[in-house]
Amino acid sequence: MCIQTYSFYRNMNIRIIDIARMAGVSTGTVDRVLHNRGRVSEEKRAKVEKVLKEINYEPNMVARFLASKKSYRFAILAPTYSSGDYWQLVCEGIDKATDELKKFNISTEYFLFNQYDRFSFINAVNSFKEKEFDGVLIATLFGDYVIKLSKELDAKGTPYIYIDSGISGQKDLSYFGGDSFGTGVIAAKLLLNEVGTVADIIIAHIRFRYKEISVQMKTRENGFMEYLENNNFRGNIHHIEINPDDYTMSLLQVKDIINNSQGLVGGIVLNSRIYELVTLLEKLDADQQNKIRLVGHDAIERNVKGLREGRISFILSQRPELQGYDALKAMGNYFLFKQTPEKVNYMPIDILIKENVDYYSNYKL
């Protein structure tokens, strides 16, 4: 057992018997150390105190905070979502953390926006500004607007945590999410191993109302392209736009790329919507489909389906539930225990294939 992995919140229900087991002493010894009564050998006292320090043990923590009647309110600026979407998983992690923090008089309120509409983000921010909050979690899809909001929060002294993608040079309390640049690098490496250095590669962009793309997508593309440049890629990059309501134009483009390619063709989408490219490719004949290899991001239901069916070779996932959960718990730690989190907290980059995705899908916080 790695004792250091315990957090404040996991420890609040630790019993004397648990401490005794970790220290290798009796429960009576632990009780005497906690209440400073009775005789305890220096060796056993040192063992118990070592465990108490490592698990940050504080007795009656909940009762003490409830008695203080101090409460904290956190705002969540995040995208709307449909069932099975990436942002549903992030928000489920936030909701789980919120449920655990309720006993400490902590509450959260969502301000949701359309991730493809910058004016929707502005409206959500304006609604948020009408109320007072102690801290804020911010999904950073619209970089320039997030920076503007961040400077306003700096002026007010309101701490904020970025989720999903970091923005350098800001005064955010912390960032929880994936290493977007690193994910782009890994995606390029996987794709080159599949199709080779002289292949055609399709970077598919899913159409939405405004032309700007998220901070995460820009950073992923930078990592992807840098890896290709540094590893002797001599093929062709094709940027195509997919309109989910009308595949006519993009289907013709993909057919032309595949038919004119001498070997395998790679394909990638820089956000969680690789399933849109899978749907488009299903309209090709079998020989054309067999010539393309796909790498996608995020283990949402529709992407996992494509992986299981062999239509996607790899999915890179950054544990969205965990980033939402950890981000809110870090904000709680900051206010309750004056703990300042690490500035950057990268989630693991998990590489999923058909053979291991079911084990990953069964993982729950």
What does this structure look like?
The two termini are 19 Å apart. It is globular, with a radius of gyration of 25 Å. The chain has three domains: 44 residues, Orthogonal Bundle (434 Repressor (Amino-terminal Domain)), CATH 1.10.260; 136 residues, 3-Layer(aba) Sandwich (Rossmann fold), CATH 3.40.50; 138 residues, Response regulator (Rossmann fold), CATH 3.40.50. It is 47% helix and 18% strand. The chain has 365 residues and is α/β, with parallel strands linked by helices. The N terminus is likely disordered. It has a six-stranded parallel beta sheet, sandwiched between helices. Strands 7-6-8-9-10-12 form a six-stranded mixed beta sheet, sandwiched between helices. It comes from Dysgonomonas mossii DSM 22836.
The fold-level CATH name of the largest domain is: Rossmann fold
Q: Count the beta strands.
A: 12
Rg calc:
25 Å
Strand order of the largest sheet: 2-1-3-4-5-11
Supply the CATH class of the largest domain: Alpha Beta
Helix content: 40-55%
> What is the count of distinct domains?
3
- CATH-defined superfamily of the largest domain: Response regulator
Spatial shape? globular
InterPro entries: HTH_LacI (IPR000843), Lambda_DNA-bd_dom_sf (IPR010982), Peripla_BP_I (IPR028082), SBP_2_dom (IPR025997)
GO molecular function: DNA-binding transcription factor activity; transcription cis-regulatory region binding
Keywords: DNA-binding, Transcription, Transcription regulation
Protein name: HTH lacI-type domain-containing protein
